[in-house]
Amino acid sequence: MDYLCHQCAADRQLLNSPPADLLATSYQLDKYLKHTTPDPKYRVQSIFDSTDSQVYRGYVVESLAAGSVELDAQGRTNIVWTAGSPTGFRLEFGRLIAPMDAVKVVLSTSTATIHAFPARATTFIQAHCAHCGRSIIR
Hints:
Layout: E1 2-4, H1 6-11, H2 26-34, E2 44-48, H3 53-66, E3 68-71, E4 77-82, E5 88-92, E6 95-100, E7 102-106, E8 115-119, E9 126-128, E10 135-137
Antiparallel strand pairs: 1-3, 2-5, 3-4, 4-7, 5-6, 7-8, 9-10
């Protein structure tokens, strides 16, 4: 995987504006419901601290506006943003395990599959942009 700072990702046009409707496809709606509604069927689940679709959109917009970029082995562009405040919770089989304070936006270049989920900033590490060497979070 390669990791880029926000500026290098923007210069390479890897940061698109989010689609007008982040719940336009059944895939996106399924991911939104998975990450806003606790369900004990999931072994591990991260849920946002709000079910409001505008709050969800805000997390996606903030991530695209300030996050670091991960280019994975399959050519997908994902965004990591450390919010600095709570974004949601980690659940295991429906039981609260830990608060989350970051957001990961996956498949960010696809208007049909882009979606986000809360993450824990302590799972990220400091790294350097593969292009310019700036310090980033990945």
